Amino acid sequence: MRLVATALAAVAALPATAHADETLQAPSGRVVLTLSGRVARTNGEGAARLDMAMIEAMERATVATRTPWYDGEQVFEGVPLRALLREVGASGQKLVVRALNNYMTEIPLADAEARGAILAYRRNGEPMPVRDKGPLFVIYPYSSDRALQNEVYYGRSAWQVSRIAVE
Ligand SMILES: Nc1nc2c(c(=O)[nH]1)N[C@H]1C(S)=C(S)[C@@H](COP(=O)(O)O)O[C@H]1N2
Ligand SMILES: [Mo]
């Protein structure tokens, strides 16, 4: 069992090595997201602390989808979770995602990387204020895959995300 877990962790770590030897720059603006736990690239206190400019400088993706929370199709823009995890050198089995309101949900790492999920910071071109589920909202491309249209994925879709622990 232990061997299996180690082998899985090694596989999960492969795409995360791109920046593993570089240090992460320090945030200059307000820290909006802290990634802790199994992250290889950190910038203080064993965590990767990111301001919005650092997140916006990462790979970008757009997801146009219907959701349970708004009327009609919405266009979300953000960093793919896969790219975010690669940027901080994340490895492991799961993400423990916490929101400003202390909502907590767990996302298997493989699922975060395979299902096209993004950590959105814009909706229909506008930054999302905290009162409108911002500034960071986990969004899957629900409309493109029926398998995403259920409580499992809606539950993983944390809004007001502020912390991610990689385990
Ligand atoms: N920050 C935060 N994100 C959250 C929640 C929450 O309470 N807080 N609820 C989750 C759950 S369990 C589901 S099913 C969906 C839908 O929540 P809603 O029924 O309140 O719209 O959002 C998810 N994201
Ligand atoms: Mo839910």
TrEMBL record:
Pfam family, one: Oxidored_molyb
UniProt keyword annotations, A-Z: Signal
SUPFAM superfamilies reported in the protein's UniProt record: Oxidoreductase molybdopterin-binding domain (SSF56524)
Record domain Oxidoreductase molybdopterin-binding: where: 64-141
Domain of life: Bacteria
Keyword set includes Signal: yes
Secretion signal span: 1-20
Name the UniProt record assigns to this protein: Oxidoreductase
Source organism per UniProt: Muricoccus nepalensis
